[in-house]
Amino acid sequence: MLLRPLALAAALMSLSLAAQAQTSGLDRAGFDPAVRVQDDLFRAANGHWLNTVEMPADKSEYGAFIQLRDKSDREVRAIVEALAARTDNPKGSVAEKVALFYAAYSDLAQIDARGLAPIKPWLAGIERIQNRKDLARWLGAQQGLMNLPIALAIHPDFKEPGINRPLTWQGGLGLPNRDYYLKTEDARFAKAVKDYAVYLETLARLVGLPNPAQAAQTTLSLERRIAEVHWDSVANRDMVKIYNPTPVTALGQKAPGLDWAAFLQGAGLKGLDRLSISQPSATAGIAKLLATVPLKDWKTYLTLHSLDAQADTLPKAFRDARFAFRGTALTGASEEKPRWQQGIDQLNAAMGEALGQLYVAQHFPPEHKARMLTLVNNLLGSFGDSLEGLTWMGPQTKARARAKLASYVTKIGYPDQWRDYTALQVQAGDARGNSERASRFAWAREVAKSGKPVDKKEWGMTPQTVNAYYNPLANEIVFPAAILQPPFFDAAADDAANYGAIGAVIGHEISHGFDDQGSQFDADGALRNWWTDADRAAFTKLGEQLVAQYEQYEPVPGKKLNGKLTLGENIADLSGLQIAYKAYLKSLGGKPAPVIDGLTGQQRFFLGWSQAWREKVRESRALQLLTTDSHSPPEFRANGAAVNHDGFHEAFGTRDGDKMFKPTEKRIRIW
Predict the structure, then answer these.
(1) Which tens digit of pLDDT belongs to each residue from 34-61?
(2) Residue 277's beta-bridge partner residues?
(3) Which superkingdom is the protein from (predicted)?
(4) Which of 41, 130, 657, 665 is most buried per CB count within 10 Å?
């Protein structure tokens, strides 16, 4: 144990916040000198920023990730507007398609002038539903276009990850989660339901339904019945329970009431031998509703859901109604996101890799990729070192874990081959039609994968996305170009903050292969138990300790964290921080880290970690995330992992009585 250093707060009191030497890679102006790191790492590193920065009116959450996403959007906007300003874009080229799509989406005057004409053919299709077969075919035909009661996706098979096969997923709710419908004793949920009813009634009135109030109640009542059969968020994390390969010939027995042949035909899926039903009881329950609820009620439901899904390309009254509910009521934002930024969101969804190719050419130099690859390899090496030192895992499981780690595939920056958008049709002045055609183009691309070998080169995110992911079915870690920027990665900064920020992000994604979900997949990406019973029991016990820790946190008054829902992310945060710290110490080559701005390298590492999770969240948005998000709120990500880290306690000399102190024997160490 190191000698207890001066409290960070005291050190900061002697430093001028105006002296912004950024060689540390830290935003020192964001620190709060009145808060000791030993009591609250998150607020010590971010308190001044939290107290002084006003959240933009169009945001429901705001911080490091959101600021970087805004920067990425601005950079993409500059690319898009440069293309739109040209008069010589070749006909049918990606440049022309991007320009036409963006111009149509941005032209609100034209959207308003066209009124409901663009959506009338769609609504007429709902009116033509005359029987249950028609209903099933319609639901199949709209896959990928809107939130449907039974959704389809094409996905690598859990047991044969080299082959793509269809699976189902429960859906159909207009509110964020089943809890909003079922936990009526919570006044906040009850208010959201009331606001939703007002929104549905507004949509019904705007489209001219004869009894808007009744239409809203019919839709809400049907959604409540759907919510009653939905699996909850924790059940949906069970990889074994959600894998249920079912012969197509048995679908009528497993989930009677839905005409499965018409449904799959409508979706374009022909000649299937099987698909996986992710939530069998929910699918059976929804199929029964499709068979028994009056067709007129389903048609009302589908009409209002269609209007909700497409409101952004409908006249102003629809757009305003949607924002009043989905923006203000559900998330607390008081202003809508700027139209240009909504347009970038839509373009990223429609032609994301085409934009990504242009983005990386301007904003991701080759040397960034090379340095990032070095960091990833260092982190993989540190995870291997940690693996060898585990005392709770036996040699047989450890050997298989080493094999899995050795099989990791790393993708950095951007894909090696780009998607082809030749078949996508974009028309001038047709915002709603362009959106529909882009969604149908994307779904057709998915359908074409069914039954085919998985393309190992494919990416699940665009290069301009500020995020990262681990894919257990490919055993790969993926880091898009846009996240490789400050505050996560600063090529000009000292390594300590970089290892604490992007290093811990890399470690987080590596660790997902060994969290409670990822650990169920082997080195080849197959769902297979490669553990001994004793080792799995030991791992589960450690996870239970982490669940208990996080369920003590209360992000919203009266609402504590769901430790089982967030377990996988909490394991990844904890383990990622551990291996990033080991990698940082290893990078020093046995030499002491320099002291910069009065802070040791170890202290800068943890402050860099904390600043990476800097964020403010409105309460209504926080409530929504608590029911739907598998990540803990940023404050508890920063503090919850650090409190278990021996290096944190050594760096800041915590002792009994400090709020962040945790006795060494009670610290949770997993990987």
Answers:
(1) 999 999 999 999 999 999 999 999 999 9
(2) 168
(3) Bacteria
(4) 41
